[in-house]
Amino acid sequence: MEIEAHNGVATRQLLRKLRMPAHGRPLRGGAATWCGRWSSRLGTCGHDRSWPVPRRQRASRCRVIRAQTSRARWVNVAKYVAMSDEHVPLFRRAELEAVLQPVELARNLPGGVYLEPAVFALERETIFSTGWNCVGRVEDFGQAGSFLSVEVAGCPLLVVRGADDELRAFHNVCRHRGACLTHEESGVARSFRCNYHAWTYGADGQLMAAPLMDERADFDLAEHGLASIPLDTWGGFVFVNLDNETAALAEAMNGFPDLERYGLESLRRVHSVTYDVAANWKVLCENYSECYHCALVHPQLNRVTDYRSGGESFIGDSFNGGPMALKEGYTTLSTSGQRRYPEIEGINDADRKQVHYLHLYPSFLIGLAPDYVLVHRVQPIDAGHSRMLCEWFYPHTTVALEDFDASETIEFWDLTNRQDWGLCEMVQEGAESRLTPGPYHPLEFCVHAFDRWFVEQLGDRLATLRR
Questions:
Q1: Which of 15, 49, 79 corresponds to the end of one domain?
Q2: Phi and psi for 383 in degrees, rounded to 5?
Q3: pTM of this structure
């Protein structure tokens, strides 16, 4: 293997990694020569005068480091040297296949899936552009013209309620020169006018006006409305999909547990917090799906719920999840552990003693306590950063109570969230080592289910990525 060295700092780092001393005699059988363009007066390398070079190593030009060492010594060399060989794969097939084994035999995802921009681009194209993404609640669109502007997989979108009371989703892009129509996050509008050339669209996406375009004989307003995308709702949540050929949301959720008894449509959002986390979106999803860490990291959570109880976890084609039992003497997840308000009407005896956690792929996370529902929505920013939107929901009858105050549950989960984000950022940091992935614990059954789904979605294409 040849690595040209012209930078003293990088070269010293490389030699240190190879366990080669600067005096030129390699340890245990390696062989090395390096840049010998040096000053005879100073006896130093001309590229880095802080690095002494023995006079006997004089040379008239830059040479190439040739290191013949055991395979183990090369494990981390790529961290310091840019590999120009386009045939070097980012991932070994064996690493990806190891994730697909049963949980008791499987290994975690390789670190590169959390780091590489090429993987992130592939996720946008393959997962987020073809999957159902939650963008809001039906209650966010209270009247005709109510809209949200959102982004999915890097695409600006516009979700709006038309005068006919229908919810629709469009690309937030003018059909003339492709300018973004609006940057307002939400509002009410009868129409949307492009600030570039004043093309104007109705809340139903139809083009209403295009100044002077009648000067083109072939121009037809009806042919240039906003480009629509599929939209569907479940439990009062609004989902969109960038793929016009996609299966319906109900089909994508086939086998998802029946939560009708929780009356999700009638719940009302009482609080929301957006967190910026320096971690890949998959790390956040994995962290949500296990409580192996809870006893150590979440004392307030571990006090009221048993992380090793609650029932069997389950998986489906597009989801995973499972329950956790409340400890004796506690009735909900909050700072006090006691319900202050009525339970959700319709839940059963088992629900009163449990909290259910579910992950609908790719990025919709929902937890159901006896008296409220907590939703996390992950929004990938880039390979190393994510935005997490956390929302608290209570029955509308509870919210209407004069003494209603959700501060105990908000404080409880805000603390838990911040503890989790610290863990996620630690994992993101550690991924840089690209060490051999470790094993799963049986309590990480749902983490493995998600990772397995990820490899099934992208495995073949991941294996073709090159440096």
A1: 79
A2: -60, -30
A3: 0.81
